[in-house]
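Changelog-adjacent note: as of this version, every example in the card shows the full chain rather than a window. The one below runs 373 residues end to end.
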Amino acid sequence: MPSPNSNRLEGIESLRAYAAVAIVCFHLVNAAGARIPEYLGAISTHFGFGVPLFYVVSGFSLAYGYWGKLGDEQALGHYFIRRFARIAPLFYFILLFQLTNAWLTHRTTFPPLEILVNATFTFNLIPTMTDGIVYASWTIGVEMIFYTLFPLALMVCRTLSRTVLVLALSIVLATQFSIAVKPLVESLPGFAHHNFIANLPYFVWGMLGFHLHRRIFSLASRRHDRYLCWAICAAAIALLILLYHSNALYMFFWNKGLRTTWDSLWGIPFGMLCIGMALHPSRVISNAVTRYLGKVSYSLYLVHPTVLFKLAQSGLYLWVYEQFPRHSGFGYLVSFLISLMIITAISSLTFRFIEQPGMNWGKRRSSSGRDVR
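Full-length structure tokens:
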């Protein structure tokens, strides 16, 4: 019987695609100003959960790819090289573009210290710089901290029971920290909402999902994987719908000052999706298109804010909506499709000429571990 980490997980690749596309949908409304009808309100309120989905997937896939492989100094060195090679080349390219664009467009410059903090991926640790120079890069700051701590997390979360304990502690820590920084919401909203501690539970949910996947994989017959995938994914989607419509439960947590605790509960269905998609993803939800978008999802994420801003400034979205004066839903759909096509085209180029060479460099410098992001 094959081991649970013997093959690359195509279903997990597709989950990255859904996360990236959800974030594009979210920012098209909340950053680029596209209008949506009331029945599509979830896009502006909940599609931002694409970011936590990324984090859960990251925790799951890293545990899957490196389980039992970080036992010595050399392996750790190879791990850190590959993580740096996976993230840094494209990030540095976009950072340079951002700095150049800010100067050419608005004659805006950034202090050398702030540039250095961004270049070393430590900006999420500094309250006044948490969001980073690159648009939406706060998530990269969070991700890089987790990459740094992951070997320790893998050592601590060696069993299912220990991972459950770490998860509970991480939720308590995230909740208490969010309560402590609540007075800073007005003055430092980025730090209050985008800090690493508040997002830590999502990564642990992913690692818990990995342990559950190992249990299921070892017990279930391979003949039943497809049906298990359908059942688990259906249950996950049902839970997502339930969480979305649980206004009374949400208000209970909100009134208790436990908004972070509530948000962390979304890690449950996200972890379930990871388990289901890792077992035997259905072609309906994991296909050539979703796998490709998942492969270029990092480029998609870093490229999309600039593209959306530029398209909004060009007046394209206004023109599209003028073609559907009574149907803002159609206007939004057309705007999204045009945006996604342009973003994907650019992301294909950045993946081919920046991401892939970076990953190849990392592979040449190391001989263990696996590129699983």
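Structural remarks: The longest helix spans residues 328-365.
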